[in-house]
């Protein structure tokens, strides 16, 4: 089952360029709807985290570190051809799996899409508590940071075009 | 005003009892308020379903407890209209909040010779921490004096605010006299000289709507138990810039970032000021109390209490041979008085046997007593659940006490 | 041991619930304990019948509330066998108690160059207040180091205790590792040089009988919420001579004698250290919790917990690929471990979904984590209501987590 | 009614020399048993306080002041012919009335009688709370002080006779 889903997910990823944030979120929700218990869901998240190399080691710098209380999260952002590219990693594997979902939704998009996005899929697939301000795993700070990068590049773009 | 005031009264189970064989008329609300059933239910509900130490844990109970705690913080934020949630720090009460600010300010902002301005109408909690800090730092404590009406004498304020004044700390409503102090004017004058202002709202949040952004005060503090909430919880509001600027007070778990045996760095706001396991169930109870106030409406409370206050004052003034110290133009909730020839504790003891709970003594405001040259007073103070029956019982009892003691 | 352990378990309503569709196995007791029904009933009973601000009032409710509060103090006195009732000070928790002692001692007993001795196995609450005080007073913080077994290395104690050492502050039981520290030996060595000793008993009063006169420690502190009592209440025991000698910490109502705008004198023990409205309902709840412990018997608790602890340890040791940091000869209640290749928070999240509540992270003991060179650990900790079912569920869940994460 | 009781009480006082502490306590309990409500009881206490001059003004010194939180209590003790004599006063009238009862029971007695006395009448006539350690009216401190004086004179006596 995991194998199948994994391919499905990679296909999803290839189509990312044309799909909207909305569509990718729906896609992930659908993927997760197959699981009827937590262990399967976590197994899947762990799988995702393992197979995707998320960040180049050279970007695992102190500047890119978002310090959560328990797990470390690194985020590296760059801007390319009008689109944001995100790479990230964590020393905790479930966090890393969730990161890979977030990147799948947000990476390779225009800044204003990202700025205005509402990441409801997290809630719908039952991972809401992971993005709660009270869960200090660095994920919420990471999403905030992703949006901040988008805002920054958006502002730069606007200035350039003025 | 309330269509059905009995509905409110029925929310408070403790009021429906007899003491010494008479119905209870509880008029000691400035000391502490009773708790509505919904607050008690909420406290038990959280102990029974979701008790778990907050922050840092990944398990379900802790997650729920943490979210509830942070929700309580937001409830308080909205209640006093603070700009940021992290400007709300949970303390164990007004006293701890003032001690925190006095200590932290003392550590970094106070030099020898600096001045701290309080008033003669303060509760000891807003005098002694400043006195002790001033002593430690060789600073001076000055105060705005009282007038015979029980009001602050603002004519001397301009002289009292000097270049050396580093903070002004004033209560909003006096617990002893019920005087509503002109905090807007004081804040404005202090701000003209860039002096931060702390408002001790222990006796006002339960009676008057408060908007810290409109008041523009730097700090505002109050106690949960005086606003229908549990004991052991309170609030310290501070403007973000000030809370950021001040060093922590108590230290321990949760308020730290990195701890080595050699050196510690601190957590962000508001946790920087919340050392150790906070009274998280207390915070939940307090936020339920605030929600209860919101449900019945602070405007309604205000008009009910103001009517009852006037009723009480009018009845008291009819008594012969009574000396009332609460004569300010603006006042609420608490009234202090004496029979000139009777010791207040005698009056209190007789009232007690007639079912009436009032406070007698100095009300933790000895400087006010010294000003009026009395050893203490009798104080009656009202809350939302009091009614004219309570007041009539109180006045009857006073008549009897006056007669017995004359 | 208990004839019918289920009877005890049934006293704790919160345990009988499902989380994520599985029964709850609550093994986060070192963070906070659950409350027996009798404690919750007592709290509600006092709010519903007798809530009133304590001390100084002559009316019935206040008199009852005050007597109950002072009765609670006596219950605590007997519980730890203090010589005098006034040696028991109610604080809001262990953290506040240690901050109080660190501050007060700092003000009058510490000179530049003096030394404070703690250990590497302390909770942040018993490190940071000393660090900050040492910084303010130009004193030095030294510590007894750990060994790889998770024990204190007493071979260096003689060298660490110098003429400049002004206090030794040590926990009795480590919250992170469960190690029972050799406090008798430490107290004895410190006393040979007339150095006072503070015992942080936050993790021991609920597990082991304590007798402060027999221990002969100068101070002993603990938190109510970790001993089946309410949140927001704690205890600071101090020998009369030391409490008399130290200046007050927080100031405000109740702890003063005479207050003028110029100068304040302080109340007697224990009120000198209880500024403002205390959490008097919390104190009543805590004393009910202590009575509950007395009813079931601390000896019984100890033998039940010790059996369960050994059971857990044996089962854990059977797991492959587990690293256990709790290897002290004497230990109780808490066990810290990791799967070497898995982040503790991953383990905690999986356990959570399987109904098992453990804590993961640094447990407010970063120096211990630094010593073992780990970013954190998984900690399971037991209480009187846990049983082998809880442990079996925990071990099953660990097996699954280990498999998923390897 | 008050008038009658008052005379009864004065008679009681005259007989004090022969009556034991026990007997005087019983006498007071009997007197109070007539009242079936608090106001009468207090009226009587107030009466007692008014009619008995308790202490000479010259003894109202700072040294003789027992500071209660709310009301002041002065106590003066002297030793005469093997017996303790107490005089006391308070600025609160109910406290003063209770003081007059205490003096009626304890004054003009041998130190060892006083030292070992158990003042149960206070409880029985319903005034227990007035002697509670939590009621800061100075009464409890006064009783303690009365006993301390008795202990002191007792010790002096013993020493002298050795
Ligand atoms: C050993 C030890 N000391 C101190 C504390 C701090 O206790 P509290 O947070 O209740 O103030 C704890 C609680 O985690 C502890 O385990
Ligand atoms: C005006 C004022 N400030 C401060 C306090 C102290 O509050 P707490 O005892 O709850 O800390 C009180 C309570 O009596 C008060 O009335």
What this model shows, in words?
The complex is a heterotetramer, with two copies of chain A (162 residues) and two copies of chain B (406 residues). Chain A is of the alpha+beta class. Chain A has a single domain (11-161), classed as Alpha-Beta Complex (Sufe protein. Chain: A), CATH 3.90.1010. In chain A, 53% of the residues lie in helices and 12% in strands. Chain A is built from seven helices and three strands; from the N terminus they run αααβββαααα. The N and C termini of chain A lie far apart (52 Å). Chain B is α/β, with parallel strands linked by helices. Chain B folds into two domains: 5-31 and 297-404, Aspartate Aminotransferase, domain 1 (Alpha-Beta Complex); 40-294, Type I PLP-dependent aspartate aminotransferase-like (Major domain) (Aspartate Aminotransferase, domain 2), CATH 3.40.640.10. Helices cover 40% and strands 16% of the residues of chain B. Chain B has 14 helices and 17 strands. In chain B, strands 4-10-9-8-7-5-6 form a seven-stranded mixed sheet, sandwiched between helices. In chain B, helix 11 packs parallel to helix 14 (388-405). Chain B starts with a helix and ends with a helix. At the B-C interface, helix 2, helix 3, helix 4, helix 5 and strand 11 of B face helix 2, helix 3, helix 4, helix 5 and strand 11 of C.
Q: Can you give me a brief rundown of this structure?
A:
Chain A has 162 residues and is an alpha+beta fold.
Essential attributes:
heterotetramer; A: 162 residues; alpha+beta; Sufe protein. Chain: A; 3-stranded antiparallel beta sheet; 7 helices; B: 406 residues; alpha/beta; Aspartate Aminotransferase, domain 1; Aspartate Aminotransferase, domain 2; 2 domains; 7-stranded mixed beta sheet; 4-stranded antiparallel beta sheet; 16% strand; binds pyridoxal-5'-phosphate
How would you state the average pLDDT of chain A, rounded?
Answer: 84
How many β-strands of chain A, per DSSP? Answer: 3
Mean pLDDT of chain B: 97
For the record, the count of structural domains of chain A works out to 1
H/E element string of chain A? Answer: HHHEEEHHHH
Report the principal-axis shape of chain B.
globular
Bound molecules: pyridoxal-5'-phosphate
Q: What's the CATH topology label of the largest domain in chain B?
A: Aspartate Aminotransferase, domain 2
- Main beta sheet strand tally, sense and closure of chain B: 7 strands, mixed
CATH class of the largest domain in chain B: Alpha Beta
The CATH topology label of chain A is Sufe protein. Chain: A
**Order of adjacent strands in the largest pleated sheet of chain A:** 1-2-3
Structural class of chain B: alpha/beta
The low-pLDDT segments of chain A are: 1-12
What is the CA-CA span between the terminal residues of chain B?
39 Å
Number of helices of chain B: 14
